[in-house]
Amino acid sequence: MRILIVEDETTLGKTIAEGLQEFGYQTDNSENFNDAEYFIGIRNYDLVLSDLMLPDGDGIDLINVIKQKSPRTSVVIISAKDDKESEIKAFKAGADDYIKKPFDFDILVARLEARLRFGGTNVIKIDDLTIDPDEEKITYQGIEIELKGKPFEVLTHLARHSDQIVSKEQLLDAIWEEPELVTPNVIEVAINQIRQKMDKPLNISTIETVRRRGYRFCFPKKA
Prior knowledge:
2 domains, WalR-like, alpha/beta, Rossmann fold, 13 strands, 4-stranded antiparallel β-sheet, Arc Repressor Mutant, subunit A, 23% strand, 5-stranded parallel β-sheet, elongated
């Protein structure tokens, strides 16, 4: 499970991230609206935890950005504003929960877990192909495919952006925790794994290489 934390109080954001990581969550941190919008554009999040008031934008506008890109992503607002009007405004914009500062961290985790349990499915289903990110499981016509780790994440990311050409740099930034420490050829290795372990045995094609631009999910092939 990946969570984006949008909090302009650096210490608080770091504390929340470290706490959530102890519970097994992957986290990204942003301290402003622009950075949050960037992360939302390149990565898929199960939940976004955001302050209502940001130095360069409004948390309400961020809710709209998140829900337009991924309606299933849960949005939990944390805010020092404890008036009824702010809370109602956030819920009407699409927030799934509203937590007032200061809060107890254990209560925060419990509410995030509850929200993630009741959130929408992340399963991707295209014709006879089903990709389940939560279970790290792929099935095609009832056959389960043995594809794990980074190749699975690359396939999932491309499938979620099936109408787009995704560059190597975008894939590195979206999937690897420290993309600056790995070389772009790890993407080629992952793509080769997908083709060898999945496409070739099943006689299908899921990813096409777009020369000098990146990769595109292409299943099923259009006539």
